Amino acid sequence: MLKRLPRPATLLVTALLPASLTLAACGSSDEELKGFDAVSVSGDVGEAPKIDWKGTLAPGDATSKVIAKGDGDEVAKDDVVLLNFTIANGYTHKVNYSTYVDDDHDYNVGSLVKVGAKAEPQSVADLLTQSLVSEIKPGTTVGTRIAVTVGSDKLLEDYIGNSTVQQAMASMDIGNEDGLLIVADVAALAGPAGTAQKAPAWAPKIVEKDGVPASLDFKGAPAPSGDLEVATLVKGTGPVVKSGQKILASYLGQIPKGKKPFDESYSDGRGLEAVVGGDAASVVKGWSQGLVGLPVGSRVLLQIPPKLGYGNKAQGKDIPANSTLYFVVDILDVADVEPAPEPSETASPSGSPSGSPSGSATGSPSSTPSE
């Protein structure tokens, strides 16, 4: 089965749904306190925050606090930044979700945020961090740590009754009226970081707009070779991607005769979370074969022949059958995939749901028929 590149809404929501549980209120006997009267946050930026609970965090409107100001570059409007973040429940005093690598949480990649942009949440992760996004303003410096307290009822009030959101909250043991603490580090400006390398002769030119890839120019480029071609345009310095891991990436895809990209994530700053390599790969084979073994921080140009792409089946009006695919991919983060839970007698036979918070499918289909 050849698999088409899914949109991040499906991937991110799926990543947040390790099991099917029943939504329920949580319990605590501590004194109920408001905002940061209930909790203090410490620890080094870049590492999982240390959270000291003083009582039960009462649900309520969002309150924010800068825990530490970074000494990195200032971000500007429309910059895309990489966040690492933790979501903790002020009722159970447990960490519900974290993108930091430690003994307990090493299965989640970071998240991308476009500074100053107002975007409809495309995933449950987007919903959980939306009160934080407004705190990352132009002038915020890389390395800054920000914390927000907010009630789950306030955070998710526009999605009451949405089954995908309800199941996601249940899977993370978040009740309908729990106080939540969200702590995030502005880790970096999203983009390639490493040593630039010369493009090979087969590579089309990358046309940029506002400093990010906007299209590919095939003028003067040779006809596709029929083989998988991989050009590392920037060699990153981060950890190397292993088969079966998931990555966070920005990307652009175009065919040689295409007047514009058939899909891209740079313009709106969204990130794609995808498993590359192994039986659980969620992208076309050319992505898995081309990206495994490359370090985080790399910008890669892929030429993918039909047999490693979408095969002899057309994909809508933009990708005819037997198309060679060209992708620009920035590898921004990597993490292991969490082992699947042991099946239980009460587990739903349909498995975990997926999709956008609105419940409607958007963007490209997630798979194509086999060749």
UniProtKB/TrEMBL annotation:
Residue ranges of domain PPIase FKBP-type in the record: 244-335
Pfam family, one: FKBP_C
Gene3D superfamilies according to UniProt: 3.10.50.40
Catalytically driven reaction(s): [protein]-peptidylproline (omega=180) = [protein]-peptidylproline (omega=0)
Signal peptide: 1-24
Ranges for region Disordered: 337-371
Enzyme Commission number(s) from the entry: 5.2.1.8
Domain of life according to the entry: Bacteria
The UniProt record lists the keyword Transmembrane: no
Keyword DNA damage in annotation: no
UniProtKB keywords: Isomerase, Rotamase, Signal
Ranges of biased composition (kind: Low complexity): 343-371
Enzyme class name: isomerase
Entries under PANTHER family matching the protein: PEPTIDYLPROLYL ISOMERASE
Designated name of the protein: peptidylprolyl isomerase
Species of the source: Nocardioides aromaticivorans
